[in-house]
Structure formats: structure tokens, C-alpha cells
Amino acid sequence: MKKTMLLGALLLVAAAGFAQESRQDVSVSAIGVFAPHVDGNAVHLSTTSTLGFLGSYRYMLTPRSALEVNYSFAENSYKYRTSFLPNGRVHARQQEITGAYVFNMNFRNFNPFLEAGVGGLIFSPIRDEGTNLLDTKQNTNIGALFGGGVAYELSPSWDIRAEYRGFIVKAPDFGLTNFKTNRYELVSLPAIGVAYHF
Hints:
Blueprint: H1 2-19, E1 24-33, E2 38-40, E3 43-47, E4 50-60, E5 65-81, E6 88-104, E7 110-125, E8 139-153, E9 158-170, E10 184-188, E11 191-197
Antiparallel strand pairs: 1-4, 1-11, 2-3, 3-5, 4-5, 5-6, 6-7, 7-8, 8-9, 9-10, 9-11
């Protein structure tokens, strides 16, 4: 009798585990990359706007709290103007690696959320016709991520996700003392994509 009760209890626990909602999701999004003009230390930096890719993994701790890791990739051009170099150009890859806490809310099929975290932006120069300075080096700048958005549930397994993401980070100098602005910039990374829950 005790063995039967123990087996029944184990089956109930297993069934309850399978009946729970998905605790994990992965998402793929298209992003825009928009950085402001930065002036400081007698240096003017302007960055071209571009499109990129964002991949995210989210693990639900509770129905309202989650942890998320992100990777994004884009290519854009950085233009520097100083008193001695009026047209310094660097074509570069921008990669994001971040971790964030996500707070979720539920309103029927709409699931708004807020997020905040930390991570790094990696700026890697590409030596091509878009770069006229060959002594540039890779920068890895640590910063803060914040944002919010909404997910619209299409089914228990799929949703569409739109969000605004902001990253506060020191402006890149590509290892060149003459390009140091000593300023922070807010890089805007709006995203729209799909998520799969499992």
C-alpha cells in the first residue's frame, strides 16, 4: 500500500511538472542601431544608423520574474573629426553580450515587460575601404542595459515581441588617444521579432 501511494505521489508530481507553463524561451529579432553625436575632449564622433540581429534566451524564475542573456550583431561606421584629422573613418562590427533581469506582466494575450542589466559592447574595426586608419584596435566597453516592450501571444509556444532597448556605454576610441571623447553615449537598440517558448 505504501509503495502504491508513493508511486501515485510521484506520478502526480511528474504530471504537475509537465502541466506547468513554459519556463524558457528563445527569441530572434531584427534591431535598429541608433547612436547620438558625441562631442568631448575636442573630438566630434558621429555614428551611422544601421540594422542588425538580436538573439535572446530567457529563463522564467517565477511567472513575473526572468533572467535573460542577449547577443546582438551589427555593422556601422564611425566618423571622427578633430583639429588635426577632419575625416577619420572606422568601419566596425558592433557586438553586444548582456545579461538582464526581466519583470513581466500579463493582460490576456499581451505581456508587457521591463528589463535592466549589464554587459559589454565589442567594437571591432574592419580593415576595408570604409576604414582610413589602419592602427585601430578592438574596444570592449562595459555598460548598462535598460528597456521595455510587449509580447503578443500567438499560441502557448509562440509570441511576437517588440521592445525598446537602450545601452549606456562609453563612446569607442578604437585604441587611439586622439579619438578619446571621454563621454558616455546612449545607443538605442529597438527590436522586433519572434519568441519560441519551451
